DNA-directed RNA polymerase III subunit RPC3 (Eremomyces bilateralis CBS 781.70), 640 residues
Amino acid sequence: MSQYESELLILLVEDLYGDLCSTVFKALIHLHRTTLPVLAQYTGLQTRRLKATLCVLIQNHLVVFNTSRDEGITFYEADRKGAYDIVRFGKSVKICEERFGRGAGQVIAHVLSLGHVPIAEIIQKYNAEMSQKSKRGKKRLRTNPPATNGAGATADHTEITSSTFSAIESQKHLRAIVRQLLDEQMLLPERQYFFKPSYDVHEEAEAIVKKEEFPKGLKGTKDKARLLQQVNELKRKWRDDDDDGDGTGRNGSAAKAIRKFKTPRINGAFTNGVNGNHVNGDEDVELNEELVVRLNHERISVAIRTERLTNLAGRYLGEIPSKVYRVLLRSIEDQIPRCFDDLKDNGNESDEEDEIRPTTSTTNVASLLAELYPKVNLKDGLVHGQLNGHSDGADGHQDSDEESDSDEDTVRPAGSREALRENKERLSDVREHLWALADDPRGFITWTNSPSREWEVDLSRLNQVLIQHELEETVTHSFGNMGTKVLRILKDKGKLDEKQISTFGLLRPKDIRPVLSAMQETGFIDLQEVPKDLSRQTSKSLWFWYFDPVRTRQNMLQATFKGMSRCLQRAKKQRLEFNLVVDKADRLDIRGKEDAQLTRAEREQLAKWKEIEEKLHVQLGRMDDTIAVLRDFDGAVGEN
């Protein structure tokens, strides 16, 4: 782990959980893998206090641990992935609110505040809030007359919005939301796998495989390859299935018992995963209330990638095709459990062949588009029903595809010739936008040209497109268009000298020389010396410029970690200037009543601090988007 990444993680833990937790977490970062006595000696904390702090860190997925079966010694490690996920807490709540409504966002926020929690406790918390709210309402009616002309409305609104589940109407509604989040895998059953260090998980899996499959030992490289493959398969089983019943979800069938209850259809289409704002809370939902759940951060990464690809499509193709693309990506998310599987054996050819590329049909996209964007005008960007050389019937497969689509279409109720014509026209428009996405040089989607007649998304290649786009955007902001041109030339042609770069770019050598030097200083390109003879004189050497994408990503990752760390330090420093007024506004008797309880000068100071804090948080979120593209979508770099 690099210096700047460690610094960032410690600041995140300190900002959210306080000095005591950050002290223990910082010690674990520096000690790596350690025991309780060593940790107590390093931090100087009492054992009782240290144990309580470790419980908080483990509860919130900031520390992983394992107890050896032979010696009975427990080892602790800092979970850097769990610590970094703190940055995305707000983004996770926002994503769930946009997809499934405010109630889902509030459930996610509650789960994040506790790390992991049984479903029974979520329901119990909601019932307690509703009971308290009912008592307050009865007391208000006894002591105060009914308000007229809006009097007293502010106090009621403050009470409701300060509630954890203010947007949830009933317990049935809450159950429906929890079930929907489980169906969409936004909530995940907690398992023992998540609490163990990766090293211990690998050692345990390897020992089991060796005992069962290789009792006589390993013989040659083929056995070693088989061992690695079977170890990864066992680790995937522990991570995804938990069939051994060791997880805190009680048993492996807990999640399956929930997922078998499908979300009811509304107007012929599933509500979950598309416009989950319309959760049906009228029906009682069966839930295993003993199930312990946590947020599935990998699904959040998938949702972030969907938005980044949508924005990229919108930049080159426009608003309407980008909306169609967003719907298409949303429709295939159930086929993508995570952006990158670190347990896949990249050296195994069978894994490469068995890699599944998600697919979807035109009908499915059109149906979901009607739910997400019912008022969108699909004619925008189309010229007389033709776009990029594609029109109805232009390809031999389109007519047959249209016939099969019209049979399955449920966007509008049948019964009139006009409705059928509109459905057919809408499918045609959606298909044209899909062809625009397929014809783009970036290849957002691909037509499979198979009997299934579906659209395919090559996500591994699109990850590289996003990474290259992020690098080029950074170079453009730092060095202008000339820097981007140089980067593209070196990426396309390989190692070149200064004269060759100027020839390919139609630029003068004296113009590109300062740009090359500046890009080398910041780590975007490198320079290699090739001597002409054994004398190795500088004047007689050839100098070649080249672009190393992996090294550049690593350098940019560390620079982004450093920027995020400085951003948090700046926020901490700035808060000291407004400490008095911020602490006063955070008091329970003042929160929500700032206009009445604070002076004008204090309100101005508070507004100024909120403006500064918002700017810093926005900048932090943008840098997190960069981290997601460079590290989380592809997973090739970032392990230091």
About this structure: Residues 146-162, 244-277, 391-412 have pLDDT under 50 and may be disordered.
